[in-house]
Amino acid sequence: MAFDAIYHQRSITRAAEVMGLTQPAMSNALRRLRLLCDDPLFIKTHLGVAPTLVAHRLSGSIREALDSLREALRHTPAAHAAPAQRSLRISCPDAFQPLLLETLLENPDFDWQPRFYQSRRREALQELATGKLDLLIDLDQPLSQQNGLRKLPLLSDQYVFAYGAALTQPPRTREEYLRTPQIQVSQRRDGLAPVDLELGLRGQRRNIAVSVQSALAARVIADRQPLGLTLPGRVAQVLGLQHCPLPLEQPLRLELCLYVESRYRFEQAVERAIRQVQQTFAGLVRTTRRSAGA
To answer: Does the keyword Lipid metabolism apply (predicted)?
Structure first.
């Protein structure tokens, strides 16, 4: 396990954190591995450590052995104890959580307990890589080849202007859109949401009246206050909000991806859950296209 942690983290310090060990303990483990294999295994660099050719050759076999051990332990109940139901920890926008929950629970072979979180974006990939999170649904972002994660495209969408019962007339021009008071939906405590970053690059700025972290909370507010929202079209559809295209010269786009730790390739239950998530979003796309063509 020490070898696997160092190989994927490319850092003895980060590997020690993942394993819950001190750095000296991890260094001692690496020293014993070097003696056993008669090879340095990892060479110091300015970025951390780099695996040798021998380490590269060993990595696949060691990862497969660890995955087989994890799978065997998962199916081996503890003595004198009832088998515990394993949690599937998912971080995704709250507007999609009811859809995913319904899809997962409809599968009779799904015997895990879904648990939804909304991780901070800067911490989510690290939580996924260290096993604190199982599935992450988030904006498209670059991945390091060294962190052992997979990225699967889920949804490509355009932002729309969404509104509830309290707003009778959506904006028709760019000036009206930028002037209309809006609800900002963002998990960030401060800073700009992705749509505002894109608008800023165009020299434009929305009139933000209130900021909330939950799209479901924004849905309730929109029916009571004459405030608009700038949301991905499918999110507006899921929330049941009226919506129309943004009155801008160029559309604002969203790319949503599913991130998962690579070791789950060997866990059939998680792979089935991944396929179900992909099918749910594919079904959402088909439904939107039929609605648009009606």
So the answer is: no
pTM: 0.61
How sure is the predictor about 145, in pLDDT bands with cuts at 50, 70 and 90?
Answer: low
Neighbours of 278 (CB within 10 A): 15
- Tokens representing 254? 């969203």
Mean pLDDT of 242-266: 85
Phi, psi of 253 (to 5 degrees): -110, 155
In whole angstroms, what is the distance from residue 98 CA to residue 80 CA? 36
For 67, other C-beta atoms within 10 Å of its C-beta total: 17
Helix count and strand count (H, E) for the chain? 11, 11
Length of the chain: 294
CATH classification for the domain delimited by 2-74, as one of 3.40.630.30, 1.10.8.60, 1.10.10.10, 3.30.70.1350:
1.10.10.10
pLDDT exceeds cutoff 80 at 92: yes
How is the chain split into domains, by residue range? 2-74, 99-294
CA distance 251 to 232: 11
Q: Does residue 260 surpass a pLDDT of 50?
A: yes
Q: Tokens 């020293």 sit at which residue? A: 31
User: What is the C-alpha separation between 18 and 125, in angstroms, rounded?
Assistant: 13
Distance in angstroms (rounded) separating the CA atoms of residues 64 and 267: 12
pLDDT of residue 162: 96
CATH fold of 99-294, please? D-Maltodextrin-Binding Protein; domain 2 (3.40.190)
Nearest to 52 by CA among 1, 3, 2: 3
The pair of structure tokens assigned to 162 is: 């969404």
Mean pLDDT of the chain: 81
